[in-house]
Design brief:
This protein is mainly α. It has helices at 7-19, 25-34, 36-44, 54-60, 63-66, 71-83, 87-99, 104-107, 110-123, 128-136, 139-144, 158-165, 176-185, 195-199, 239-247, 250-264, 282-294, 299-307, 310-313, 326-337, 346-356, 379-393, 399-410, 418-428, 436-449, 461-475, and strands spanning 189-192, 215-218, 228-230, 233-235, 415-416, 452-453. A hairpin with a 2-residue loop joins strand 3 (228-230) and strand 4 (233-235).
Length: 483
């Protein structure tokens, strides 16, 4: 048996790990036939958005209809990540969820947060100006940053401040006066569906006809119509005008470019360090900045430039260096093992395991979102990550694991050496490339048990166990835990 991988399939495997949640070896074969550029185009403009249908999910999980509580919205989103035919749509939603971090404790309504994720799916690959307008109208964000308490003559600066500091430009590119003027422009941008509660004498409610039906409402009588000066421009600005001015700024283009590079290419320091720390690759950032302005602020154009660039496509040094977030690790592993070919109660367990690894979807730790990279790893979360991945890849009853075992066995000539077993398992798990040190550990483990006799027509329990053990060893490797 000789396991062969081409440069083309290695590039596509890298692309799908970053732009989605990885792919099985059979899926990579099909994608290789299309070609790299065609795969990029399909990711950015999918023809099929299908995923596990909501009616099927709700038949098994009625609680995922109302999205009550914290676990159910996360479990529902996990279903979408592991079943979608448009993986970049879910991946960009995950990206914006961390940038525009909005959490459960203050909202206390999962449906409102789920609606925000739906908004990210719809607008996340589109025009950045449109996305910021939709964000400013989003009920979860309005409550999260108190814009419902931002009134003419009594401004609340929370949203205006974070819009500039964390959502668009970054520290050092605006003044305190700019924050105040932006906040004035967003007065009157508030929630609808509050009159019912007021009539009942309630300040708030988590029950139907309360938060569940929140929607954006513009109240012109509460909007400050006075002249405002923002980033050097003066006029009777409303919120859309502020966003127009923000999108014109070089600082905005660089800020969003650095976020995209950090998430899709290679990790940067945490955002608060950016004013004092240059980008890892200045030329790459400039490429993305140019795409931002040339396209009129289109995120898809920036990502097309990123995915087809030499710094992403051909630089092997940036492969397997990004630590997978818990959501990425859980979703990519479940897509590989195919545990959820239909709804199952265990999806709640998987969502909780993600939380034990340090990431509860719809509940980031602060307005800064999650810090990425090695901050995902500590002595507790590493154990959770390894236990989850090895349990999944060692379960031979799962359809995806059986398929990978069959692939390894079918490519054999009856006898698999320890070296070839390692190669075959790395290939079957989605073309995982490992360092020389990792390979030595894997080969030493395989060598201790000797060569493996296997027949593709009749795979013995012993052969299944040996192959699944190698899958588990790969799942525990430095490279599998990264993308």
């Amino acid at each position: 048996m000789v396991v062969k991988t081409t440069q083309a399939v290695e590039q596509i495997a890298h692309l799908i790990r970053r732009a989605g949640f990885g792919a099985t070896r059979d899926e990579l074969d099909a994608l290789e036939d299309k070609g790299y550029d065609a795969v990029v185009a399909e990711l950015l403009n999918p023809s099929d958005y299908s995923a596990m249908p909501d009616d099927i999910i709700r038949r098994y999980h009625h609680e995922q209809s109302g999205m009550m509580g914290q676990v159910n919205p996360a479990a529902y989103w996990l279903y979408k990540m592991i079943s979608t035919k448009a993986p970049l749509t879910e991946k960009i939603a995950l990206f914006w969820h961390s940038v525009f971090a909005t959490g459960y404790p203050k909202i206390t309504q999962g449906k409102v947060l789920n609606d925000q994720i739906r908004m990210f799916r719809r607008y996340g690959l589109g025009n950045f100006r449109t996305l910021l307008i939709e964000l400013s109208r989003d009920p979860a964000m309005i409550v999260w940053l108190d814009n419902h308490d931002n009134h003419k003559g009594a401004i609340n600066e929370n949203y205006g401040r974070e819009l500039l500091e964390l959502f668009s430009m970054g520290v050092g590119n605006y003044s305190e006066d700019d924050i105040k003027e932006a906040s004035r422009a967003f007065t009157g941008w508030t929630l609808g569906n509050t009159e019912y509660m007021a009539l009942r004498g309630e300040r708030d409610s988590i029950w139907p006809y309360g938060r569940i039906a929140w929607h954006f409402e513009y109240k012109p009588e509460d909007h400050d119509e006075g002249e405002k000066t923002f980033l050097g421009q003066t006029g009777n600005f409303n919120g859309e005008d502020i966003i127009d001015i923000i999108c014109q700024q070089e600082a905005t283009a660089r800020f969003i470019s650095r976020h995209l590079y950090d998430f899709f290419v290679a990790e940067e320091p945490p955002v608060p360090v950016w004013p004092y720390s240059p980008p890892r690759d200045e030329d790459a950032i400039q490429t993305l900045v140019d795409a931002y302005f040339d396209s009129g602020y289109e995120i898809s154009a920036m990502l097309e430039a990123l995915f087809t660039s030499d710094f992403f496509k051909n630089d092997e040094d940036i492969r397997f260096i990004r630590v997978k977030s818990p959501a990425e690790l859980v979703a990519s592993t479940l897509r590989l093992t195919q545990e959820f070919t239909r709804p199952r109660r265990e999806i709640l367990d998987r969502a909780m395991q993600m939380q034990y690894m340090g990431q509860q979807l719809n509940n980031p730790p602060s307005v800064e979102g999650w810090h990425q990279g090695m901050e995902w790893i500590d002595t507790g979360t590493l154990v959770e990550r390894l236990n989850f991945a090895t349990a999944q890849l060692g379960d031979v009853s799962m359809p995806g694991v059986r398929s990978m075992i069959n692939r390894v066995a079918s490519e054999s000539d009856g006898l698999i050496s320890s070296v070839r077993l390692v190669d075959a398992c790395l290939d079957a798990m989605g073309v995982v490339a490992v360092s020389d040190d990792t390979r030595e550990v894997l080969e030493n483990f395989a060598a201790k048990l000797g060569d493996l006799e296997v027949s593709a027509d009749n795979i013995s329990e012993h052969a299944e166990e040996r192959i699944s053990q190698m899958f588990q060893m790969v799942a525990a490797s430095h490279e599998f835990q990264r993308a």
